Amino acid sequence: MSARPQRPAPFAAAVTGLGLITAAGAGAEATWRTVSEAVTAPSVLRRPELHDLPCDFMYTITGLDTRALLGVAAARLMDRFSQLAVLAAREAVADAGLDPSVWDSGRVGVVIGSAHGGLPFYDEQHTLLVERGARRVSPKLAPLTVVNAAASSVATDLGARGPSQAVSTACSSGTVAIGTAHQMLRTGACDIVIAGGAESVCSRLLIASACQLKAVSTRRDDPEAACRPFDTHRDGFVVGEGAGLLVLERLEHARARGAAVRAHIAGYGASSDAHSAVAPDPEGLGIERALRTALADAGVGAQDIGHVNAHGTSTVSNDLIEATMLRRVLGEHPLVTSTKAMTGHTLGAAGGIEAALTVLALQHRLVPPTVNLDAPDPEIPIDVVRKEARPGAFDAAVKTSLGFGGHNAALVLTRA
């Protein structure tokens, strides 16, 4: 009788740097402070571009002069989502203590997720075409709006000459990007990968469509309280802009250079619902498969998970389906939060931003509250942290993401 093949030992990638630009703060520590303390309100602003739509507001990054930070010439060659990605990447690389002028650039990869790329610029150029003719259309339309523009811009800015890739799996894009980076490091294709997501879509066309789909909140009388994951009165998500990037390294590479390791990406799982273009599988079987795959990949059990940063969009069906699945797989003990009420739903960037916040939760052993959760839905069968952050002695956490088209992804993160 032949021996059963042995399962490879779990592979963990070291997280050595974080970069965050969100409506909750410019920088990882500023964002964490706002999200964990829930004292300062994020910038949920009415946008003139959306003035007559049922949802005329979004989470907006304020006080950020990208032209001054990037240089006018460089900024002109990037749409806003790429600009945010570059700024987050610079912070993450500096946080990791890396010097791009001396690293082995061919061993440094970039994987950045985005759902919509440069859609606002596309909208702007279409209006110019219709109103002023073809000669007014910018020749930079393609390089600024393609989904891979953020990955290209980051690689160019940092001189990273390893694999440079874009991921576009709707709202799970950032999580899939980190999972892809984990796999690249596992195979030895790279020593370092900068991974996460970036998005900025103040697009009249997109928001009008989301309103028609009844996916976004129409709580125009109180925009700051409109995003309320797991609340009985939730009525849809609120779009946000931002970027969240992690520097991931092979553990031996990080140790060899004496890097401080913040946490580990210990496991990754992905799946497809094969169910609907816009709705998750009603039993949550797709995201369950992704989560169980991630747990097995990390070599940990459900009992080891002490915290979940949930997808938690504030839509009626998504929150209930995800919460029911989490209870089924992990039980009632993990402390669950959705940080979208402080950052907005940043679509393709969400997984990157929320993975970074999960790293910080592990480091601080502190779970941020789900703000605006005033009336918890009695049908939500999980322990959702509300009102104020809650400490917990946990060494492993999960980040889950669900995307339109049934794209699911999950990460298992562990303390360093």
Give an overview of the whole structure:
This protein has 416 residues and is α/β, with parallel strands linked by helices. The protein folds into 2 domains: 13-256, 3-Layer(aba) Sandwich (Peroxisomal Thiolase, Chain A, domain 1), CATH 3.40.47.10; 268-415, 3-Layer(aba) Sandwich (Peroxisomal Thiolase, Chain A, domain 1). It is built from 14 helices and 16 strands. The strands form 3 sheets. Strands 1, 2, 5, 6, 7, 8, 9, 10, 11, 13, 15 and 16 form a 12-stranded mixed beta sheet that branches. Strands 3-4 form a two-stranded antiparallel ribbon. Strand 15 and strand 16 form a beta hairpin. Helix 4 (80-95) crosses helix 7 (149-158) and helix 11 (285-298) crosses helix 12.
In short:
The chain is an alpha/beta fold. The chain folds into two domains: 13-256, Peroxisomal Thiolase, Chain A, domain 1 (3-Layer(aba) Sandwich); 268-415, Thiolase/Chalcone synthase (Peroxisomal Thiolase, Chain A, domain 1, 3-Layer(aba) Sandwich).
Uncertain spans, ≥5 residues at pLDDT below 50?
none
CATH topology of the largest domain: Peroxisomal Thiolase, Chain A, domain 1
Our estimate of the beta-strand percent is 15-25%
CATH architecture of the largest domain: 3-Layer(aba) Sandwich
Structural class: alpha/beta
Number of helices: 14
How far apart, in Å, are the first and last alpha carbons? Answer: 41 Å
The portion of residues assigned to helices is 25-40%
As a whole number of angstroms, the C-alpha radius of gyration is 20 Å
The strand count comes to 16
The CATH class designation of the largest domain is: Alpha Beta
